[in-house]
Task: inverse folding
């Protein structure tokens, strides 16, 4: 039987984001043999259609209009709703990113439907599609099903494995022209603060600093380590409150929740509120002067020592390792 | 200006979560105003003080949320409304909450609605945008700055670390991100005054809503705690040797680099 499932391919600086490929994989589970259709929205985006197909979408619909060059909830919801009207899908999957979080509830409201946000897993079990999602910032998990209407979910980056890219997959990329009416919010300026390049929520490696970093400059060695590992820099609430870094870096129950492959906590004591944001990382390394620090209870590996000694040494060792690889 | 704040009562961030009978155990737990909603309340008070008008704090839940509503009144909000759905709704979801709130607000004269960008318990961040859509007003989520000039509004929004400066107009719904402001603590006179401020309690009936109109579209079938992490290996020896060992363990044992 199966159902048709739409996937929104999210574009950032001209490329599709990884989470969109993960969303295609999730959509294939939700489709249960039905068709998976990618949707691209922008001013000129159809060229990216083939890549979505090589990750497992069967065809792609590109909605193009110059008013869609930048994301706005009004523009994107009009575009996506026209595709939904045309395709009448039984499922819809979007990445749980800033864009996905902003747009999805509006679509759910228009569809009068449920929405399972921030899913980390989807599986077929007992005749239902069961989504797993963290609650209380990962201190607990819940399993949810859709009891009525379209199966609509946003998925958290880095948790559902995408399919292997296969350039031999083929499919149709069509364009849909839509009329975009008034946009009630207009973006006047974008200030890029996240210059480090790697997005915190999608990073495979996160190097995070706490009060032990002691100053804004104290974050420098952490940035170097992150850069060698191709990772992103994060921070605890303590470091943000002390003004050592921007709040956009904060990881914890207030702040971002991250699940990288490797989390390196430097000078972080490990308050419950911070652990909630990172304890589901695959491997955790703690570096702290205080052997009694709570962070060691959740760490897979710990070094008791001064981060300003340990972190530069680590950076050097990883550099050597990268040369040998 | 008519300002509304959507507020949720949640577990204190410092609480440990335990489960009993398939549900999150609430016995003896401390409850607070959802931290992101606190920013919303603070901002609402500041907007009112600058532009005049009235701040109404609205919560959907059980009568236990009265305590947090009183705290909001003590901070400086003018009125509070509790929509008590305890008797009528079992297992409500974000559709339920948004439906109830928008039904309440739809015949009100609304200029500005503020909410937290996410609640730290359920964590779905849906209710704000859903309510804005139901009321057919624009919204901006995860804001860090709000400037109102007549009916035109300039908002700065946090987008995964970048900032967007957005122009829009009232009526408007915004959701608060950390960094928007520094929420005040209720003062003693504030707490005294709050006792006399109006706190209305409504039920579905008062909103002309039937139970089936707000019935959840999704269902939780299981709640569980993540497997407890075993304490790992704290390395020993010379610092330099520890660092070498760590890199080798991450490479060959954990295979993450």
Result:
């Amino acid at each position: 039987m199966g159902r048709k499932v739409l996937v929104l391919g999210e574009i950032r600086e001209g490329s599709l984001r990884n989470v969109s490929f993960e969303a295609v994989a999730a959509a294939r589970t939700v489709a249960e043999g039905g068709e998976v259709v990618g949707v691209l929205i922008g001013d000129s985006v159809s060229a990216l259609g083939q890549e979505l197909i090589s990750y497992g979408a069967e065809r792609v619909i590109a909605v193009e209009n110059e008013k869609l060059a930048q994301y706005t909830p009004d523009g994107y919801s009009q575009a996506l709703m026209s595709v939904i009207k045309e395709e009448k899908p039984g499922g819809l999957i979007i990445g749980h990113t800033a864009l996905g979080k902003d747009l999805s509830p509006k679509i759910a409201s228009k569809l009068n439907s449920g929405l399972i946000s921030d899913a980390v897993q989807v599986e077929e079990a007992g005749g239902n599609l069961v989504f797993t999602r963290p609650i209380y910032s990962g201190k607990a998990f819940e399993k949810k099903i859709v009891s009525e209407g379209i199966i609509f979910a946003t998925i958290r980056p880095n948790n559902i494995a995408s399919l292997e890219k296969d350039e031999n997959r083929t499919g149709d990329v069509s364009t849909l022209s839509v009329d975009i009416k008034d946009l009630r919010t207009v973006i006047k300026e974008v200030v890029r603060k996240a210059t480090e390049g790697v997005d915190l929520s999608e990073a495979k490696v996160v190097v995070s600093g706490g009060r032990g970093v002691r100053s804004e400059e104290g974050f420098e060695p952490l940035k170097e380590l992150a850069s060698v590992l191709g990772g992103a820099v994060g921070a605890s609430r303590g470091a943000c409150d002390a003004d050592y870094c921007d709040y956009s870096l904060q990881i914890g129950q207030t702040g971002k929740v991250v699940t990288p492959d490797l989390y390196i906590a430097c000078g972080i004591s490990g308050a419950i509120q911070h652990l909630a944001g990172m304890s589901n990382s695959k491997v955790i390394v703690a570096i702290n002067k205080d052997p009694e620090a709570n962070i060691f209870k959740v760490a897979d590996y710990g070094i008791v020592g001064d981060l300003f000694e340990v972190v530069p040494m680590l950076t050097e060792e990883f550099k050597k390792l990268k040369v040998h690889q | 200006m008519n300002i509304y704040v959507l507020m949720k009562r949640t577990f204190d961030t410092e609480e440990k979560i335990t489960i009993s009978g398939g549900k999150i155990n609430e016995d003896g737990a401390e409850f607070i105003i959802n931290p992101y909603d606190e920013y919303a309340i603070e901002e609402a008070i500041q907007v009112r003080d600058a532009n005049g008008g009235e701040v109404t704090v609205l919560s959907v839940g059980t009568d236990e949320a009265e305590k947090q509503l009183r705290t909001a009144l003590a901070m400086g909000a003018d009125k509070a409304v509790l929509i008590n759905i305890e008797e009528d709704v079992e297992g409500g979801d974000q559709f339920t909450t948004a439906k109830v709130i928008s039904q309440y607000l739809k015949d009100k004269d609304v200029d500005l609605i503020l909410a937290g960008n996410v609640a730290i318990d359920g964590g779905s961040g849906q209710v704000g945008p859903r309510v804005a859509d139901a009321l057919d007003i624009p919204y901006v989520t995860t804001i860090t700055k709000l400037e109102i000039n007549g009916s035109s509004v300039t908002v700065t929004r946090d987008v995964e670390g970048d900032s967007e400066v957005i122009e829009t107009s009232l009526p408007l719904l915004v959701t608060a991100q950390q960094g928007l402001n520094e929420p005040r603590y209720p003062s003693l006179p504030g707490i005294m005054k709050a006792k006399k401020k109006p706190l209305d309690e409504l039920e579905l009936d008062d909103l002309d809503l039937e139970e089936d109109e707000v019935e959840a579209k999704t269902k939780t079938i299981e709640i569980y705690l993540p497997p407890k992490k075993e304490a790992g290996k704290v390395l020993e020896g010379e610092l330099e040797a520890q660092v070498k060992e760590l890199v080798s363990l991450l490479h060959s044992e954990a295979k993450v680099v």
Summary: The mean pLDDT of chain A is 94. The domain at 5-176 of chain A is CATH 3.40.50.620 (Rossmann fold). Chain A has two domains: 5-176, 200-324.
